[in-house]
Structure formats: structure tokens, C-alpha cells
Predict the 3D structure of the following.
Amino acid sequence: MRLRSLLIFFLLTITANTQAQSCEAPQVVIAGISFAGNEITKEQVMRQDFTFAVGDTVKTEELEPLLEENRSRLFNLRLFHHVTYAYTCFGGMVRVRYEVQERFYIYPVLIFDFADRNFNAWLEKKDWSRIDYGLSLVRRNFRGRNEEVRVRVQQGFNKRLEFSYRIPYISRAQNLGAEIGIADYRSRTVNYTNLGNRQYFHEQEEGRIIRRTAFSAGLIHRQSVQRQEGLRLSYHHERVSDTVTLLNPTYYNTPLHERRFVRAEVYKAINLRDYFAYPLSGSYFEIGAAHTFFLQQAGTDFSTLRAKYVNYHRLSEKYSYMIGGEAQLRLAREHAFADNLALGFRSLVRGYELYVVGGQHYGLFKQGLTRQILDIEGIKLKFIRNPKFNNIPLSVYLNAFTDVGYVVDKEFGGGNPLTNRLLAGGGLGLHAVTFYDIVLRLEYTLNKEGDRGFYFSSSFPF
């Protein structure tokens, strides 16, 4: 028996990559699951998302797909650079070993950012005074439990203080998590109105013209890394100078220059993408509803509904196709300019990066054809000894895309010709994907208005 155990251990340790061991029986029993390389991450965190356990009976023909699916689940925790597995099969008993290479979990990042919505909007002004600087510290996988702590201290044009703490497991069943956050924002300038679908700002030389403070807490029901839903409650206090409400009496849509409100939000996400940072197959679905309650008659309550669905289809080894849509409804008797956000911030039609299209409701459709043109498993940096940094994977994709959007604005559409009409854009882009989920995009776009140009972004397009 001891000799047999030594033989199993030897076979597992010499198998570095995923490979099958011959199983002659029509079905097998999972006799053991072990892990290697997880110096910080707790085994319970890794086992939590598995769809099989010790003692399960599995059809032999389904064994490889099962192990690969769970390898993908481990990788999409975004805690590891690489995840591989090996298994041995003796007498209908299978022992599986997953090996991981952990990431570096402390991210101290110097902040040198642009105070505008995106780089392209800043480039249009080329105002070097509109720069933010500071330090952002992110501690991922805190205590080895996939917890996340974020601290941000920012100075410059906009001042920010932020702290958040997310705990994925607070119950014995390991399916209920929690999150808390606090944020304070102050700025010398405020976007008090839009005209011609461009932001107009008022800047105050001394003091801060706007201040926002928020506290939030939430519960997360986590079925797996792919499926979760949650409830979030937040308290907000916002204040602007008297000048802002004089320039735009509808900024808060009340005679007051400050307001307090509570927001309740519920959401659900089903993420079945193969690789969360840059998916090539699978699907993503998200739906959310929020209601904002104003305190002390500081505004009109409103509800917001959002939904998003995207499908990614791999056409061949090199080609994939993406198609999806997103929509928002904001329901209220009256609307304030400060809440009139639609396209141009979190979501946009590519080709309109320099515009803001405010409104209460919007719909957005995107599609794209992607062709992989480079795939390097790892660029070895011999002068760096730390294995968490010295091997850089790199994938480059050519992407052709078209976007279509429509914004409904019944309150502030006057003077903004891009509202209440069809928006369309398309173009070609180069997307680079490397370690730590970094995605860089350089795209050339042409929109329906005839505008064209190169735009840079550092996030996945949809």
C-alpha cells in the first residue's frame, strides 16, 4: 500500500502540464483532490468553486472536460498566473492534482491620471493643470481568503479619499459575503451643464466647488465565481457652491445647493465567459435595479433599471465573434441634471469618445469580429528573479467592430443634437492582453457624424 502511494505521488509530481492517464473503466470515482503552489491562498477558497468533490462518480468520457472546466474556474478567480492539472487513474480511482502559480497580491500604484472622463477628452484640452496624482494601494487575496482591501489617496485637480473592503465568505456555508466602502471627493471644477454634447465646466480658484461623500454596505450571495447576486445600501451627501445652482437651477432641480439621499440596489450577474479579462467564448448577463430616496425633500425619488447581455462565440482557433446589448431606464416625475447620465461615461458608442450624451434612457448594441495575430505564452525576463513578474504572456488581437446607440432625453435634450437620435460608429483596433488582466486598446473609429480618429483605452470594450 505504501509503495502504491509513493508511485501515485511520483506520477503526479512529474506531470507538469495537463495530460490524461488511461482509464479503462466506463466510469471512475474521484479518490482525492490536492493542490500545489498555493502558498497564500487557502484550499477552502480553491475548493469552493469546484463542481466535483471526493467520492463523486464520473463517466470516463466526461472526466477531462470536467477537470478543464474547474481549471478555468480556478483561473477566473484572478488569483493565479497559471493553473494546470494532472491526474492518475488506477483501478477506477482517480486522484487529481491542481498546480497554480500565485500572483503578487499587493498593488501599490502611483496615481498620475487625467481629471477628465478619459484620455481622449483630456487630450482635446491639453491642460496640464487637470492632472490627479497620489497613491492607490490594493491588497488582493487578503488573509488568503480572496478578500480585497482598497485604499486611495489622491491629490491634484481632484481630491479623493477612498477605502473599501470586500469579504467573499462570512457564513459557514461559504456562500454569503459582504462589502463596505467609504469615499470622499472634492474638486475645483464641476460640469454644470452640457451644450452641443460637450461638457461645460465652472472652475473655482479657491476652495472646492463640489464635494461628495458616500458610505456603502452590501451583502453578496455567491453561488460560484460565475454566478452571484447582491444587495447594496449607500448613503450620499453632495454639496456644490451657490454659483453652480445660479448657473444651472436644474443642477439639483431644487433651490438647495446640497442634498442627501439613500440608494438601495439589487443586482445579479451570470458570467460564463472563458476568460474574464478578455473573453473569446461564453456569455455574460447582468441585471440590476436601484431606487434613490432623497432626504429632507432635497430631490425627487427615482428608480433605475439596467440590463446587459453579451455572447462570445469562437468561430475557429483564431477567430471569434462578439454580439451584445445594454439598456437603462430611469423613472421619475422630475429629473435633475446631476443624475442625467447615459452614454459617454461608463458606456459609450465608440467613435463618440469626445461627446457626452445625457438622458434618462438608453440602448446600446455592439458587435465585433476578433482575429488573434500573436500569442506568446511567456516572455522571460532573466534579470528578474521573482517568478510572479519575470514571465510575461502576451496576446495581440485585431478587432473590427460596429456600435449603435440611442439615448432618450426628455428634459435636457435642447442644444444637444446627439440625443433622441441614432448614434453609430465602427472601426478597427489592436488589443493587447498580458498578465494581471491588463488589456490595452488602440482603435481607429469613424462615427455617423463623420468624425474619425485614433482612441486609446485600457479596458475590455464590452
